Every structure is written in structure tokens, then in C-alpha cells.
Amino acid sequence: QYDLWLIEPDATVPTPTRLTQTEDIDERFPSWSPDGTMLVFDRQGSKRLSGLYVLDVFVGGVTSLSAKSGRFPDWAP
């Protein structure tokens, strides 16, 4: 199972923070928004939950963008 984690690169002792935790569902291929506040990612596993999602990293809210999965989603300039 794949989940999304955040690790601060400049921390003296990096402490991973789990951003997603969904049983039997993989969250993969994250891409940061240009302002660094959100991640778009692909979720696969359950037909009901599969697709493209956006995660607000600071609030923790997840929003569905599409029921279709897509590898390597990215933000438009």
C-alpha cells in the first residue's frame, strides 16, 4: 500500500508526517502546486475512490477532481 508522506528537508532530525492513510487504496504520483500548499495525486484501489485528487497540505482536506486515474498528474502553468 502506498500513502503520501511529508518530510521537511531542512530539519535536523527529519520526522515524517503521514498525509494520507486509506486502507487498501494507493495514493501515488504526487505533484506540488506552484505555491507549495497543495498536492495533486492519483488514487487507485477502490472504484468508488479511484481517480485524481487534490490535498490541501495545511488544512488536510481532500477534493476529488476526476473519477479517472492518471499517472503523473501535474499543474498547468
Uncertain regions spanning at least 5 consecutive residues: none
> Main beta sheet: strand number and arrangement?
4 strands, antiparallel
Written as H for each helix and E for each strand, in order along the chain, the element string is EEEEEE
β-strand percent reads: 35-45%
Rounded mean pLDDT score: 89
Distance between the termini: 31 Å
Question: Nearest-angstrom radius of gyration?
Answer: 13 Å
Helix tally equals: 0
Shape estimate: globular
Q: What order do the strands of the largest sheet run in, or round the barrel if closed?
A: 3-4-5-6
| Percentage of residues in helical conformation | under 10%
Query: Structural class of the helices, strands and pairings?
Result: mainly beta
Could you give the count of β-strands? 6
Quaternary structure type: single chain
Summarize the structure.
This protein has 77 residues and is mainly beta. The protein has strands spanning 5-6, 17-18, 26-32, 38-44, 51-56, 62-66. The chain starts with a strand and ends in an 11-residue tail after the last strand.
